[in-house]
Amino acid sequence: MILFLKYNRRARYISDASKQARQALVDFLIDFMNEGEVADVIKDIPEALYIPIIYAPIEMLVTNASKHEVDDMNQYLDQMLAFTWETLSPEKTAGLPA
């Protein structure tokens, strides 16, 4: 994610759909990192697993936003955050290799 943002920060986006998709990705990352649960949930997850787990909802978010398949972006962001937190919950990650 960090590399994506780093290498695309100066990219020029021509269409409004591209701008909206990029903004949706940034909003998702900001919301995800600002959640108070981040420190409690993520600290026990192997770093190699963290990126793949959150990649799926981000990919879905950007893809669906760029195709205008999202009726309510705020509701969709909330759903993606809930999905990601559920995936990262201690119950789901118990027993994973460190």
Automatic annotation (TrEMBL):
Gene3D superfamilies: Tetracycline Repressor, domain 2. It holds the Pfam family TetR_C_10. Residues 2-88 form the HTH-type transcriptional repressor C-terminal domain. This is HTH-type transcriptional repressor C-terminal domain-containing protein. It comes from Atopobium deltae. The lineage of its organism: Bacteria, Bacillati, Actinomycetota, Coriobacteriia, Coriobacteriales.
